Amino acid sequence: AATVTSRAVEWLKDWHSRTGKGGHFLLWAHYYDPHRPFDAPEPFKSRYPDDGYAAEVAYTDAKVGRLLEELERLDLTDETLVVVIADHGESLGDHGEYTHGVFLYDATMRVPFIVAGPEIASGVVIDQQVRSIDVLPTVAEYLGLSPGEKVQGTSLLPALSEGRGVRTTYAYLETLYPKTHLGWAELRGVRTDEWKLIVAPRPELYRIDQDPEETTNVIDRFPVEADRLQKQIWEVAGPPESLGELKYQPLDQQTQEELASLGYVSAGVRRDLRIDMSGPDPKDRIHELQVLEDAGELMNVGRYTDAIPLLAKLVREDSTNPLVFQHLAVCHTRLGEYKRALQVYETAVDRGADTDETHAEMGELYIRFGNLRQAIEAMEESARRNPTNLQNLINLATAYLQMEEFSEARRAIRAIQAQDEDNAQAFNLLGILEVQRGNDLVARGYFEKAVQFEPEMAEPYMNLGIIAQEAGQREQAISYFKRFLERAGSDNPELLARVRAVIAELESGS
After folding, report:
1. Which pLDDT score, from 0 to 100, does residue 360 have?
2. Displacement of CA 184 from its chain's centroid (Å)
3. C-alpha to C-alpha distance for 117 and 156, rounded to whole angstroms
4. b/e map of 70-94 (b: 16 or more CB within 10 Å)?
């Protein structure tokens, strides 16, 4: 939060100095701190010794306050609309969930929404239900702009400025996370001021005006109401009979077509994911969820040895849960138990609990064992499932270069550049490819491009130093090698020692 606020304040100061309040600005500051692990800095940790979440919220609140103070200092408060909203809450144990994403209860669905600015009455509380989809049309109307034809929300400006009610009767809710990450049934829901219906293998209906904690499922008592609300859900989600395979389409059409032409076309987030309410009801997996949370907490503080028995037991109890295998393999990897980690991933594949990340991690492990062909097969599978994982594509291209399969390496690099044409890693890889083909002059240009787009990336400086050294450009080589050392980490001491030795030789003139 401190970093976000500092950058936001600097941005505001720069804008103010350039425009002198003569222009318009949109500033979005995204604060992430109230998430697990809860580890707020002092003095907030000491103020809330038994409530880490409250400490994180208080810390973030203080930093948001600093941003608002800067608005005041720059004399911008009276002409700036300020909107504060959360994307979700944290369950903190409510209904057996400790974070968010699995359930649709109000503990995570009901979020703060605060609006302040010129002509917005202060201290007014809007009691009716409103929705996050209402933010865009509200801000657009306030600024006298059109929200566009595709907007689904409703402007809340009449409620904010005049106290009039607005039509935000139905709020659609859904979470695919149980299906995509845990192998359980996804959930859908609808909420009104009076009711909430959650469609699940065992559906739930709550009279939230009388039961705000959602403790009593009354679906058997109000079947007509449940049926009415369910119709609202399928109006948004599409009819139940139309539900099917989850398609993974994260990119624009042109990029998708480019990736498809390169052989990287995705058919799903992982295996055949059926978005049809199939799978265990998340309510019946509370125990497994608790163990995953406990293991995650241990992993957050580096206690991988303690987390492994919990996760190993879960593998037996919830044998198709991808996240269990992922966590267990990560624990073994962090402990240097690479063969065990690979075995966990291979078991996940055998049980159909694999994701694109499973295969990407397997590829890295195969590289560690020197098995480049199996590494390539695993990383190609990961890229087919999720071509947006650029790190996997970088690893794949690197493996192809090591195998001297240049056309395949170039194909993987092109897949990176289709999504990020200024990617420094891609230019560095192209440079390595040209060095291997004996084209040092062309390679130099690519390495210089890598440095241009990511000046703090270490490897291109070393590559430029080698080219300069081989060309007899001693001073230039020394400069490049020193810049490499300034940016390189400490995880490869042998390489650092060799580079220092080369610098010493060059400086001595030998």
Report:
1. 96
2. 21
3. 14
4. bbeebeebeebeeeeeeebbbbbeb
Percent above pLDDT 70 for the chain: 95
87 Cα distance to chain centroid: 13
From the list 398, 371, 367, 393, the residue with the least C-alpha distance to 381 is 393
Distance of CA 470 to the CA centre of its chain: 43
Pull the structure tokens for residue 489.
């980490």
Q: Is 115 helix (H, G, I), strand (E, B) or coil?
A: strand
CA dist., res. 249 & res. 434, Å (int): 33
pLDDT of 277 reads 80
CA pair distance 252, 247, nearest whole angstrom: 14
* Segments in the chain below pLDDT 50: 266-271
Q: Which residue matches tokens 């078991």? A: 347
Q: What is the pTM of this model?
A: 0.81
CB 169 within 8 A of CB 153: no
Return the SS3 of 196: strand
Q: Which tokens belong to 483?
A: 């810049």
| Cα pseudo-dihedral 496, 499, 504, 508, rounded to 10 | 180
CA angle centred on 266, ends 263 and 268, rounded to 5°:
155
Choose among 177, 279, 170, 155: nearest CA to 235: 170
- Identify whether the C-beta of residue 307 lies closer than 8 Å to the C-beta of residue 298: yes
pLDDT of residue 270: 43
